[in-house]
Amino acid sequence: LALGCDNSVEPCSSSLTVKEIGSGLDYFANRFHLPVKTSGIKECQQYCMQNCSCVSFFFYQESNSCFLFSQLGTIQST
């Protein structure tokens, strides 16, 4: 996982807004990405904030799995 931003641009964290969209939702692309194992949602959020291409993340509490995405499509109910 590549972390960190180019020092010549504004830090990613200054423009990141996290919104909880609820439980019982899934994103089809999660099936095609390997998750990052984290200690919790805060660490998952930090990974996203430190990766300039990250525009969204999904966190599964049951497995502490964190999925980072550079683009976001349709979210579906499970």
In brief, what are we looking at here?
The protein is α+β, with helices and mostly antiparallel strands and 78 residues long.
Outline the structure in words.
By secondary structure, the chain is an alpha+beta fold. 12% of the residues lie in helices and 23% in strands. It has one helix spanning 41-49; strands at residues 25-27, 36-37, 56-60, 65-69, 75-77. The strands form 2 sheets. The protein has a 3-stranded antiparallel sheet with strand order 2-4-3, with helices on one face. A two-stranded antiparallel ribbon has the order 1-5. A hairpin with a 4-residue loop joins β3 and β4 (65-69).
Give the arrangement of secondary structure elements.
Layout: E1 25-27, E2 36-37, H1 41-49, E3 56-60, E4 65-69, E5 75-77
Antiparallel strand pairs: 1-5, 2-4, 3-4
Kindly state the percentage of residues in helix: 10-25%
Overall shape: it is globular
β-sheet strand percentage: 15-25%
Major β-sheet, in short? 3 strands, antiparallel
Q: What's the mean pLDDT score?
A: 75
Can you write the helix and strand succession as a string? EEHEEE
Structural class: alpha+beta
> Strand tally, please?
5
Residue windows where pLDDT falls under 50 for at least 5 positions: 7-11
Chain oligomer state: single chain
Question: What is the number of helices?
Answer: 1
